[in-house]
Design goal:
This protein is of the alpha+beta class. The chain has helices at about 20, 35-40, 45-55, 75-85, 110-130, 140-155, 155-165, 175-180, 185-195, 225-240, 245-255, 315-320, 335-350, and strands spanning about 10, 15, 90-95, 105-110, 200-205, 215, 270-280, 280-290, 295-300, 305-310, 330. The strands form 4 sheets. The protein has a 5-stranded mixed β-sheet. It has a two-stranded antiparallel sheet with strand order 1-2. Strands 3-4 form a two-stranded antiparallel ribbon. The longest helix has 20 residues, at about 110-130. The radius of gyration is 21 Å and the shape is globular.
C-alpha cells in the first residue's frame, strides 16, 4: 500500500489535521468539526489506519506502528497522530513501552475497525469510479482515492456533486448555479473544472447554434455522493454527541443511487414506492418509480404507491448501511419495500464484496 501523501492537503483542498479532529469536545458545544472523511483525508492518520487494519486482517492483534516505514511521514508525526487516535477512541495501546522494554504495540478499537472498513468501501468505490482494474499500480489507486477524498473534504465540491446527483437530467449553467445557491459563480466554476478533469462530472457540449453546455454526474461516481451520510453514520455510532439529523443527506443518497438499482422482480413498470424522511421541522418525501429494469427517483406527486417506508434520518442510515429496517415504519407491500431497500443498499455496498 502506498502511504505517501501530503500531510495537510488532498488534491488542493485544505483539510484539518488529525490532531485538530481528535480533540475532545463537550456535549453542550456545537457539533464537532471532525468527521470520518476528514480523518481519512489526513495522510498520516490514513497510513496508520491502513497499517493497523491490514495487520489485523492478516491475523496480527497488535503492531508497532512507529517501527513501520512511512515514506514522507516522520516518526514524530506518527506518534502525534497515534496519541490523537487514542484520544478519539480509534486506536488502543495494547502494550505500552516502558522506555527500555521495546516499542508500544497498537491495535484498532471497534470504532477503528469500522473506520478501516469505511475506508475499504471508499477505496473500492473510488477505484471503480476511476475505472481501474484490480491489477492497477498502488500509485494509481492512491490518486483515485485522493480524488474522492479531495472532493468529499471540500464542501463546495460536495454541494456540486450532490446537486447533480439530485437532478433528473443534465443541468445547464444557470440551473446548476441555482442548484448550488449561495455558492458564488466564480467559486462554482473554479471547483467544477477539476471535477470535470477527474471525470467525476461530465461536461456535455451540444452541437446546437449557439453551442450549449450541460453538466451531469458520472454514474460511476454516484456512490461517492453517499459517503458524507456514511461518514455521519460512523460518527453517530462511535461518538455519543453526534446524531444523524440532516434529512437532505439521506434524500441525496436515495436520489444518487436510484439509477443503479435493479427493479424488484415483483414490481411492474409504472408502479412506485414512497419514502418519507421525518424530522422535527417537517418531512421530506419522494418516490422510487419502477421503470423498465431500473428505478428512478422522482418528486412525490401524490400518486398511489404500492409500498411506503417512513423514518428519521438515523433509521434510514441504519437501514442503508446495516440492513436493519426495524427503525422504519413500513406500510403497504412490505416485501416490495424490503426488496427495494435491499436493492438500494446493494448498489451502495456492492464494491466492498
Amino acid at each position: 500500500m502506498n502511504h505517501k501523501c501530503d500531510d495537510r492537503r488532498v488534491t488542493g483542498y485544505r483539510v484539518q489535521s488529525a490532531m485538530e479532529l481528535s480533540r475532545p469536545s463537550t456535549k453542550s458545544g456545537s457539533r464537532r468539526s471532525r468527521s470520518a472523511i476528514a480523518l481519512l483525508a489526513d495522510a498520516p492518520t490514513r497510513a496508520i489506519l491502513l497499517t493497523l487494519g491490514e495487520a489485523s486482517s492478516r491475523g496480527g492483534e497488535a503492531f508497532a506502528v512507529t517501527e513501520h516505514p512511512f515514506p514522507g511521514i516522520t516518526p514524530r508525526l506518527v506518534r502525534d497522530r497515534l496519541r490523537g487516535l487514542e484520544r478519539a477512541g480509534i486506536a488502543v495501546a495494547v502494550e505500552r513501552s516502558t522506555g527500555h522494554g521495546g516499542p508500544t504495540l497498537w491495535a484498532l478499537s471497534p470504532a477503528g475497525r469500522d473506520l478501516f472498513n469505511l475506508y475499504a468501501l471508499l477505496d473500492r468505490i473510488a477505484t471503480h469510479a476511476a475505472e481501474l482494474p484490480a491489477t492497477a499500480q498502488p500509485e494509481r489507486r492512491t490518486v483515485a482515492v485522493d480524488t474522492a477524498l479531495g472532493t468529499l473534504a471540500d464542501p463546495v465540491a460536495v454541494k456540486v456533486v450532490q446537486a447533480l446527483a439530485l437532478a433528473d437530467r443534465p443541468l445547464d449553467p444557470p440551473a446548476l448555479e441555482l442548484a448550488v445557491t449561495p455558492i458564488p459563480r466564480r467559486t462554482l466554476y473554479r471547483r467544477l473544472s477539476p471535477l470535470v478533469e477527474a471525470k467525476v462530472v461530465h461536461r456535455i457540449v451540444g452541437r446546437t447554434v449557439p453551442r450549449s453546455t450541460t453538466y451531469a454526474l458520472n454514474d460511476r461516481w454516484r456512490p461517492v455522493a453517499t459517503m458524507p451520510v456514511l461518514s455521519t453514520w460512523w460518527e453517530s455510532r462511535h461518538w455519543d454527541d453526534v446524531e444523524i439529523s440532516d434529512p437532505e443527506g439521506v434524500h441525496g443518497v436515495l436520489h444518487a443511487l436510484a439509477p443503479l438499482v435493479a427493479r424488484p422482480a415483483q414490481a411492474k413498470p409504472g408502479q412506485a414506492m414512497r419514502w418519507t424522511i421525518e424530522q422535527p421541522a417537517g418531512r421530506i418525501t419522494g418516490l422510487l418509480l419502477f421503470d423498465g429494469d431500473h428505478v428512478i427517483a422522482a418528486r412525490d406527486d401524490q400518486r398511489d404507491a404500492l409500498a411506503q417506508a417512513t423514518g428519521a434520518p438515523a433509521a434510514w442510515a441504519s437501514a442503508l448501511v446495516t440492513e436493519r429496517i426495524t427503525g422504519l415504519e413500513i406500510a403497504g407491500d412490505a416485501a416490495l419495500a424490503r426488496d427495494t431497500l435491499a436493492g438500494v443498499r446493494s448498489a451502495l455496498l456492492s464494491y466492498i464484496r
